[in-house]
DNA sequence: AAGCCCCCCAACCGCGCGCAA
DNA sequence: ATTGCGCGCGGTTGGGGGGCT
């Protein structure tokens, strides 16, 4: 049986999102949280399919997304992780939580692939195609390499979890995520929570920018549904009060134009939002993690010699 | 200035997986 | 065990912008 389309194609809007749509989506998610995407179009009146809404949120509107040029460090991370994990962009993105898988994928396809090609062109072995053949689905990969890669994956995951948990605790003391510190860049779990927790303020900025220069609002069916008046306890911060991390984000904002909108470079700030990361009691898993990996967990992945680790693997 | 070409990236598409009934 | 549904992922596309002639 053929899979039905995720949404009725009739009347579904496609193409670039408008600021109006963004506002509607953000305000809805602000109220209900991300998820249950199926119901988003019907509840918001957006003429978009659920997938489009989810994609727009995860790739663009979600707080904590860092835009702009990739740093050398991020680039190395991507190269390293791509060699490790193959084209599993979501997995790679989990180690660079400020970047979306789409961003990483695009960056790889547009920059790194060429770069790698250039680098590899001098040597006979290891073309990009070969590297991409390292995909997790590659059947030709020797079992030994698989096991070692798996172990590396497990180690990395444990480290990420460890740091996430430790930072979860730190979050209660409103420790700012330091974007200048690469060791924070792979706190997947923590960052997810923290990023989302920060949405409240970020959205307020979004809305503030929106209010400053509102385009011609035509009949916006649902913008009135989600009243912004409940934002009266939002912190109406501007760039001047942004954190150091936020500053770095702002500074690296790409010069998108046309149908893309400025002012969406969300800030990562501590939050008093209702979406604050819940305090999770230590589970058995966490105990195991700390017992087993405490000594190694903070041995920073990023300090690993990339060459060393990849040589070891291949 | 105009036309062409290339690059970039936001968004779309199709598929696989997990879960519930 | 089967089916239907929702979600997430990876590959691909196409439109806009910038550079070059």
TrEMBL record:
It is found in: Nucleus. The keyword Cell inner membrane does not apply. InterPro entries: Homeodomain-like_sf (IPR009057), Myb_dom (IPR017930), Myb_TF_plants (IPR015495), SANT/Myb (IPR001005). Residues 9-61, 62-112 form the Myb-like domain. Pfam families: Myb_DNA-binding. The keyword Nucleus applies. Its main location: nucleus. One of its GO terms (molecular function) is DNA binding. Keywords: DNA-binding, Nucleus, Repeat. It comes from the Eukaryota. Residues 9-65, 66-116 form the HTH myb-type domain. GO terms for cellular component: nucleus. GO terms for biological process: response to auxin. Residues 116-147 are annotated as: Disordered. This is Uncharacterized protein. It comes from Clitoria ternatea.
């Amino acid at each position: 049986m053929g899979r039905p389309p995720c949404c009725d194609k009739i009347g579904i809007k496609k193409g670039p999102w408008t600021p109006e749509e963004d506002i509607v989506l953000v305000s809805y998610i602000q109220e209900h949280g991300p998820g249950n995407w199926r119901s988003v179009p019907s509840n918001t009146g957006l003429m978009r399919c659920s997938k489009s809404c989810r994609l727009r949120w995860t790739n663009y509107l979600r707080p904590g997304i860092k835009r702009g040029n990739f740093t050398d460090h991020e680039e190395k991370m991507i190269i390293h992780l791509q060699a490790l994990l193959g084209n599993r962009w979501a997995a790679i993105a989990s180690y660079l939580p400020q970047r979306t898988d789409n961003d990483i994928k695009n960056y790889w396809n547009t920059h790194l692939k060429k770069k790698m090609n250039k680098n590899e062109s001098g040597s006979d072995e290891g073309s990009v195609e070969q590297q991409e053949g390292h995909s997790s689905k590659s059947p030709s990969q020797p079992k030994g390499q698989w096991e070692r890669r798996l172990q590396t994956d497990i180690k990395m995951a444990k480290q990420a979890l460890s740091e996430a948990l430790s930072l979860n605790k730190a979050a209660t003391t409103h420790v700012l995520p330091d974007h200048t510190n690469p060791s924070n860049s792979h706190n997947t779990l923590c960052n997810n929570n923290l990023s989302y927790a920060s949405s409240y303020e970020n959205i307020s900025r979004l809305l503030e920018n929106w209010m400053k220069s509102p385009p011609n609002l035509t009949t916006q069916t649902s913008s009135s549904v989600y009243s912004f008046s409940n934002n009266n306890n939002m912190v109406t911060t501007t760039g001047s009060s942004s954190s150091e991390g936020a500053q770095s984000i702002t500074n690296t904002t790409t010069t998108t134009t046309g149908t893309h909108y400025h002012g969406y470079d969300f800030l990562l700030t501590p939050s008093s939002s209702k979406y604050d990361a819940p305090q999770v009691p230590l589970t058995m898993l966490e105990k195991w993690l700390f017992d087993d990996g405490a000594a190694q967990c903070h041995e920073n992945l990023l300090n690993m010699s990339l060459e060393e680790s990849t040589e070891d693997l291949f």
